[in-house]
Design brief:
Length: 347
């Protein structure tokens, strides 16, 4: 199965206005000359992510490099600003944390912790499907990350196996906060990956943290079945199936897991697990997680079901190979356009 495309349509611009509820971490100062650029780990609309070695602390980081000319062309300044601001203020064991950020005339740079184990997507495709215990392990760590984010009024909005990385010690980390947003009540942005969109996003009813719990239900199903619950050749066909709400469950899925998925995939978000009284606690208290020690899960003391083979801090064998980028001269941007990036230095 090919990697799923994520929709990039975003229409509201209020994300960056409410992040003051979070306390910024101590700011680290970096510059491009601090980094030795190594292999490419991934590519995207605005640039690429490179493995680097930092001469300040001799650590390896993933350096996300975003071209300003492309950010401006696609009118994504506010959304990149929101991503950087949110990542500057959050820190969690199951989130890929940002060590710092900086910029020059041509690009923005985000210094992200390097997670050597690669995407959960790759491991799932290789194994076809995960066991009940393995799926539960990863789901629990995501529940803890969502509980943390939602407590800060952050909704993530892009959960899928491609955006989950496995650490050398076998834990899961959420990456790519391009669609994350601070939401007090609801937002009306259309964004996400078709197979993982909640009904309220498709119907433009306005949405909040409920969409993350729906996506968790889709992920648990995909981990256990090996394919998502709603699939079609076209996005429109996927949307029709999501709104119809009919899900067929393979016989091998445990009844408790099935019940958890069904309650996360409740069409009525007021009855959806995670949205009912107790919020994230209602998910933690579900019978599928009955034997799980949540304190041990948070402290990473439960032995992981799988540890990727890692040769060292700079090992990239769990990532796809990408051709080296061609060195090109980026077009100059005007002083007015440059000024749009001034606020990044304050984060």
């Amino acid at each position: 199965m090919l990697r799923r495309m994520t929709s990039t349509k975003k229409t509201d611009t209020s994300a960056q206005e409410e992040v003051a509820v979070m306390k910024p971490r101590e700011k680290r100062v970096f510059a491009l000359e601090n980094f030795e650029l190594k292999e490419t780990l991934g590519t995207g609309t605005f640039g690429r992510v490179r493995l680097t070695n930092c001469n300040i602390d001799n650590k390896h980081y993933a350096l996300k490099m975003l071209k300003k000319v492309d950010i401006l062309r696609l009118k994504q300044v506010d959304h990149i600003k929101s991503e950087v601001r949110i990542l500057s203020m959050i820190e969690h064991p199951f989130i890929v944390n940002m060590a710092g950020h900086f910029q020059n005339d041509q690009a923005l740079f985000m210094v992200i912790e390097y997670v050597q184990g690669g995407e959960l997507y790759s491991h799932l495709r290789r194994e076809v499907r995960f066991s009940d215990d393995k799926s539960k392990y990863y789901a629990a760590e995501i529940v803890l990350a969502f509980s943390y984010l939602h407590g800060l009024k952050v909704i993530y909005r892009d959960l899928k196996p491609e955006n989950l990385l496995i650490t050398a010690s076998g834990h899961v980390k959420i990456t790519d906060f391009g669609f994350a947003k601070i939401v007090e009540d609801r937002t009306w942005t259309l964004c996400g990956t078709p197979e993982y969109l909640a009904p309220e996003i498709i119907q433009s009813k306005g949405h909040g943290k409920s969409v993350d719990w729906w996506a968790l239900g889709v992920l648990i199903y995909e981990m256990l079945a090996g394919y998502p619950p709603f699939y079609d050749e076209s996005p429109f066909g996927i949307y029709q199936k999501i709104l119809a709400g009919r899900v067929e469950y393979p016989r091998h899925i445990d009844p408790k897991a099935k019940d958890c998925i069904k309650k996360l995939l409740a069409q009525d978000r007021t009855k959806r697990l995670g949205c009912i009284k107790g919020g994230a606690v209602s998910v933690k208290n579900h019978k599928w997680f009955a034997k799980l020690d949540w304190n041990a899960a948070f402290s990473c003391t439960i032995p992981p079901p799988f540890k990727p083979e890692i040769a060292g801090d700079s090992d990239t064998t769990h990532f796809d190979d990408y051709p080296d980028s061609e060195e090109t001269v980026n077009p100059e941007i005007s002083d007015h356009d440059k000024a749009q990036f001034d606020e990044f230095d304050a984060f």
